[in-house]
Amino acid sequence: MSTPTPVRGQDRPASGGGWSGWIMFASTLMFILGCFHAIAGLVGIFDEDYYLVGKNDLVVTVDYSTWGWTHLILGILVAAAGGALLRGAMWARIVAIVLAILSSIANLVFMAAYPLWSLIMITVNVLVIYAVTAHGDRRSLSDY
Question: What does the pLDDT look like over 12-37, one tens digit per residue?
């Protein structure tokens, strides 16, 4: 009886290597960030009076229900991209960076309503961008 040899899928990262830990870190942060966005979105949708700033004091003049939907949709996208990044999909690296930038911009615009939360979210976004880009050049991704 022979033992089957494991076959590595095309969309899975190679085990080992110093960069694989950064990718796992980034995907975990993206999942947490997506959950944070979803929570902020649900609060904006169901309890518009939770945030202390009037809608005219935001950078963009919209009601908190609209911001809630924006955060909820962005949260779902970020969490899904974090899962794809964990699977090792190459496109997920680019999507992760783009969504982290969009998330930072959304939180910058939202900063007047909830400054501490926005600063934490922007910091996590910067960590995601760093973690995705930290492992070096394209040659280090030959098995990715």
Answer: 444 555 667 788 888 888 899 899 88
Residue 134 vs residues 7, 21, 23, 24: alpha-carbon distances, Å: 28, 10, 9, 12
Nearest Cα to 56, choosing from 113, 6, 11, 108?
113
Please, are residues 74 and 22 in contact by the beta-carbon 8 Å criterion? no
Backbone phi, psi, residue 143, to 5°: -100, 10
Secondary structure, 3-state, 119-143? HHHHHHHHHHHHHHHCCCCHHHHCC
Say what the pTM is.
Answer: 0.70
pLDDT tens profile 54-76: 555 655 666 777 878 888 998 89
C-alpha span between 29 and 31 (Å, rounded): 5
Alpha helices in 88-114 (DSSP H): 90-109
